[in-house]
Design brief:
single chain, 431 residues, alpha+beta, Cytochrome Bc1 Complex, Chain A, domain 1, 2 domains, 7-stranded mixed beta sheet
Amino acid sequence: MNIKVKREVSVASEQLFKKTVLPSGIEVVTEYMPQVRSVAIGLWIGVGSRDEVEPINGMSHFIEHLLFKGTKTRSARDISEAFDTLGGELNAFTAKEYTCYYTRLLDEHVDTGIEILADMVQNPRFDKDDVLSEKKVILEEINLHEDSPDERIHDLFSSSLWTIHPLGKPILGHVETVGNFTLDDVVRFYKQEYIPNNLIVAAAGNIDHDKMVDLIKGHFKITSGERTVRKQFIPHIEKKIDVYTKATEQAHICLGTEAISSRDDRRFVLSIMDNILGGGMSSRLFQEIREKRGLAYSTYSYHSLYTETGFITTYVGTAPENTERVVRLIQEQIDDLVNDGITDQEVYRAKEHLKGQLVLGLESTGRRMTRLGKLEITRGEILSLDELVERIDAVTRDSVTDLARELFKPEKMVLTVIGPFELEKLAHLVA
């Protein structure tokens, strides 16, 4: 068969990760879970909003939609009815660095599921009328997003943080870009990105690795295409504030800064720090802003990591008249992390919370497949559950404090707000 095995790692008796690279360039990575009767399969394409030039911002997400409109031999209804008959799930999502088409179904239906997925990805119909109709659908999706400030604020924070970096582009694109998409634009971008060297197949569940390799080899016939080298650079971040004036009932606030990349070993330290700051009901933000002062219903922090950089930010939705007070409270909590450090009890609680969420999440074939695919496509390391727990347990209080001091620098804090006021009212908050 002339199949090149790039890496094959057995990490524990109950877990088995295997990876094979086919001659075409397609990578197949699996995790065997003999205790279940289902299989989750994801086709991961290494393209997202960061790979789009400005005039076609939103194209990755647009193509994701179009691939559900039918193939050269199947209608959209045929695809839906097939998966309903299989008792399976079919869906997709687009991110900044990848697009994923996935299914979860009974192990006895894996062959059929892969055949249909392969047909969708390799033989899209790309009808001109579908392009026109789907533009309307996505423009409505963009409008819905624009009318949901608690969601939109996160895109605005990214664009404020990364003004000239491609990671700052919104995944959905803009009304102006999507509205101008043509069939030629779609076909050109598809042919450039949907190639074997840009495809990873991840599967988790009751599936034998060699069988999965044979199925992919049999159903994927595309054999050509060179992957476009993604441009990478570390963005320069400066202190700033962006206020988007809108007549909202609440002010929506994100205050954050750049973080480390997805390949940085300190990502486990970052997870602990994030959890302490705003990751749960016992976090500092939740206790101070919601429980103690009653200034918000929704308040939290989160982080996102990418190939060469990342970010960590806080979010609060509050009454407009409380905006300045809430921003000051967020700043105080961040300053306390940096200047006063954290307690051993906070570190212990954060570790146990993360381990619990990790174990509960990995009981799902879908979550395990997603972890495999995401790590492989971002060139991360695939760790067993025991190894993940060891990395979390290895985090120390000093390492969390050191990272907080490295990241939360006043000259690099970015504040983004949506609310019924002008920039001048809040400009002094980052002065």
